[in-house]
Amino acid sequence: MSLLQQFADLLSLITIGMCFILKIPQILKLVSVKSADEMSMVGLLLELTSYTVMTSYNYTNGYSLLSYLEYPIILVQEYILIFLVLKYLSKINMWSFLYAMIYFTLSSCLLLGIVPKVILTLLAPMCTPISASSKIVQLLAILRAKNAESVSPLTWFISAFTNLTRVFTIWIDSADILLLGNFIISVLLSSSIMFSALYYRSRPLKQD
User: Fold this and answer.
1) Which one of 17, 72, 87, 151 has the largest count of C-beta atoms within 10 Å of its C-beta?
2) If one looks up domain 1-115 in CATH, what number appears?
3) What membrane topology is annotated for this entry (predicted)?
């Protein structure tokens, strides 16, 4: 095994380790307050779609597990989050179980190759605008308010760092242009949010 490959594997392990705690604070917060009034169900479902497609895309293409293990790890946390949000919004009913069954059936079809791989190739590029749009909205909110008091620069540093490590590990493992483009865009947007947050947190709002 080459030195570059060993370094890529180390970065993958670091990235995966960080992803183990990515959603934990939000999960603990929901359990603590027993309320989900401020959680966006649409946002969670968009994330769920993105993580599911990217997990299936990497798996069916036979890429190294270390190069995408964060997706299934985050998926498990996403399932818990969605369950808690549905629970605290009192929306666990027959319809939610039906939708869950449909989701897991479709996911299994994607992973088992029942759905043609070309479908995943068409779906995978859609994950980039879904992910990017959420970051753009956050960046615009900071710039318009000229305030970032409620934004954690550390969160966006971790996001930028883990995406940057993925650019390197994917380049070493497969050099998949689609995946590289996805992570490069995420690095740029996460970094922009981080630097904007640092800038406005260092410049408190002036009192009128």
Assistant:
1) 151
2) 1.20.1280.290
3) Multi-pass membrane protein
Q: Kindly report the CATH number that applies to the domain delimited by 123-202.
A: 1.20.1280.290
Q: Give the chain as a 3 state SS string.
A: CCHHHHHHHHHHHHHHHHHCCCCHHHHHHHHHHCCCCCCCHHHHHHHHHHHHHHHHHHHHCCCCHHHCCHHHHHHHHHHHHHHHHHHHCCCCCHHHHHHHHHHHHHHHHHHCCCCCHHHHHHHHHHHHHHHHHHHHHHHHHHHHHCCCCCCCHHHHHHHHHHHHHHHHHHHHHCCCHHHHHHHHHHHHHHHHHHHHHHHHHCCCCCCC
Q: What is the pTM of this model?
A: 0.69
Q: Distance between CA 113 and CA 195 in Å, rounded? A: 42
